[in-house]
Amino acid sequence: MEKIISIKNLTYTYPDSKTPAINDLSLDIYKNEWLSIVGKNGSGKSTLTKLIDGLIEADSGTIVIDGEVINEENIWDARTKIGIIFQNPDHQFVGATVEDDVAFGLENQGMPREQMVKEIDRALDLVKMSDFKTRDPQSLSGGQKQRVAIAGVLATKPQIVIMDESTSMLDPDGRKKVLDLVQKLRQEQDLTIISITHDIEETELSQRIVVINDGKIVQAGTPSSIYDIGPHLTKFGLEEPFSSQLVQTLRNSVKLPEGYLNEEELKEQLWKLHSSM
Ligand SMILES: Nc1ncnc2c1ncn2[C@@H]1O[C@H](COP(=O)(O)OP(=O)(O)OP(=O)(O)O)[C@@H](O)[C@H]1O
């Protein structure tokens, strides 16, 4: 597997703080993977994002993006490879219409008008929002707003998309739709997804989870292996996933296979039990 980001011994302490927000953290992220970074409030997730995107500079350690050690000279080039989708889409809208909004990142790149129109259409088509081109972004639902925000990011053709609590303001249905879309785009557009969240439920579609606490990685593994530590997640200020809690409770009365079961697997097991009764 090819690395797209390689972080080594990264440490950062805010100027007015005594304890490091990121503390000797090392992490490799691979091309086309979906990595979830989870941790409670204040664990260091946003600081790590800011370091990766070059908004702040580490006190020590290195970040390699797409083969280049990041420094003051090449950070702007590295940033063009990264797109960030934030928690509250209202804070990212700058245009009066959906298409103006998607155009924003492209205008910043100085793209000629004709090519820009094509790119906007392509990006809106990818997120199935072409019919909303002339709408005021503020008039859209939360899920639609996030799809437009994703289009804005995709239009600039990043290799890496960082989702910073991007679905935390959506209802369960809106959240599922956005996460399914991200999964599809990851596969079709060969993107690397880094999703940052304090909500473990949001990580099911990712391939790997790292749990951070006090600026350090305290657990890493596949979603099943992380969900499997169930109640121990509370040690890091995280809630045990609902399906994992349910499985623990059901195990007291029915026989279920070992290990973590996701919702689909649990449904299947319960059907089997039901039909054998
Ligand atoms: N501008 C700042 N100045 C000083 N300390 C800061 C600043 N921003 C964050 N911190 C501290 O750094 C640590 C990590 O914060 P960070 O915002 O990275 O956490 P987080 O995991 O993103 O939290 P949340 O989920 O609440 O967004 C915390 O102890 C926080 O208080």
From TrEMBL:
Gene3D superfamilies: P-loop containing nucleotide triphosphate hydrolases
Keywords: ATP-binding, Cell membrane, Membrane, Nucleotide-binding, Translocase, Transport
SUPFAM superfamilies assigned to the protein according to its UniProt record, in alphabetical order: P-loop containing nucleoside triphosphate hydrolases
Residue span, ABC transporter domain: 5-239
Compartment(s): Cell membrane
GO molecular function, a single term: ATPase-coupled transmembrane transporter activity
GO cellular component labels: ATP-binding cassette (ABC) transporter complex
Family classification: Belongs to the ABC transporter superfamily.
The protein's name in its UniProt record: Energy-coupling factor ABC transporter ATP-binding protein
Organism: Companilactobacillus futsaii
Lineage: Bacteria, Bacillati, Bacillota, Bacilli, Lactobacillales
